[in-house]
Write a structure and sequence with these properties.
alpha/beta; Rossmann fold; three-stranded parallel β-sheet
Length: 125
């Protein structure tokens, strides 16, 4: 399962339902985009360390940005930015899931709904 940034933010806020969702999956993946978004949201070095330790302790695999992911993300932005307001970060996360044949778990289903080939698992906090 590829986890969207919002799932990990719910965990940071103490949401037990989000924690159970992540713990229920043995193979945990995030996009490099999610990793960057989490670090960007930190307010200091201590929070950076907490994020990195959490991802390491719970065996998250970070999937790097590849040429194929970048190309697919560009197609998504071209295809969906005007009609559905697809943003670059969401396009990279969606492309990461599709390119790696992973289901994306997110509470922002509407952000990803236009991508037909994307397998989605909605989360309600």
């Amino acid at each position: 399962m590829l986890f969207d940034t919002d799932i990990l933010i719910w965990i940071q806020r103490g949401n037990l339902k989000a924690s159970k969702l992540v713990l229920a999956d043995r193979e945990r993946y995030i996009s490099i985009q999610t990793y960057m978004e989490l670090l960007q949201g930190a307010q200091n070095k201590t929070q950076h360390k907490i994020i990195k330790t959490y991802l390491s302790d719970f065996n998250f695999n970070t999937i790097p940005l590849t040429e194929n992911i970048g190309h697919r993300a560009l197609i998504y932005v071209e295809e969906y930015s005007l009609s559905s307001n697809m943003r670059a970060g969401d396009a990279i996360i969606a492309a990461t899931a599709v390119e790696n044949n992973l289901t994306l778990s997110t509470s922002n289903v509407k952000h990803f709904k236009p991508v037909k080939e994307l397998s989605l698992k909605g989360f309600k906090p």
